[in-house]
Amino acid sequence: MAISYRRILLKLGGEALAGAAGVGIDPDRATEVATLVKEIKDCDIEIAIVIGGGNIWRGEIGLEHGMDRSTADHMGMLATVINALVLADALERIGVPSRVQTAIEMRAVAESYIRLRAVSHLEKGRVVILAAGTGNPYFTTDTAAALRAMEIDADLVIKATKVDGVYAEDPLVNPNAQRFDHLTYIDALNMRVGVLDSTAISLCMDNHLPIIVLDLWQPGALIKAVTNQPVGTMISH
Prior knowledge:
Layout: E1 7-12, H1 27-41, E2 46-51, H2 59-64, H3 69-93, E3 98-102, E4 111-112, H4 115-123, E5 127-131, H5 141-151, E6 156-161, E7 166-167, E8 179-180, E9 182-184, H6 185-191, H7 198-206, E10 211-215, H8 221-226, E11 233-236
Parallel strand pairs: 1-2, 1-6, 2-5, 3-4, 3-5, 6-10, 9-11
Antiparallel strand pairs: 7-8, 10-11
Helix pairs in contact: 1-3, 5-7, 6-7
């Protein structure tokens, strides 16, 4: 099995850790996610992970009730730290060494994000989970994932979702919607791809960093992505 990438950034939504209702944390689901990560870690790939917090808090809810945007976004960042700790614990329990680094300093809980320290952990075979987004409001965890991927010199960003790629229309609304195997960055930006925000796509475009959008729960999807087999939608030049 030929491995095509040395180091990847895996972007997960917080819903990956949730139960059937899509909210909260299901420890069994966390173990399932950890097992999927271990499968590609065992291929001798260095893995950093950025995870969202939508299973715990969505800033849009606060905004709808008049909450200050910065406050709502900081609450979302804290939710990602909770998810990062859950995933790190699940990884450790199946024998995968991991570290949590946060963009907001909280030394009693996790390491502060330092780029060279994150790279050192990766080189030592640890999975690094990067929490609290960029540490700034108004930036999504997608953008944080793109930023961190470039900082750690990743070869690929994998956006793992509940859908198996990028579609011309919402496949839940139109079951016959066209799915794309490949899009250029410009195509993705012009389509205003809903599964990934435009700032993240632009950052990856400016730095020639490919993105694969895939279904986390499709059997073998992550393995296919790192071995350059057809899966999901590739966004690149």
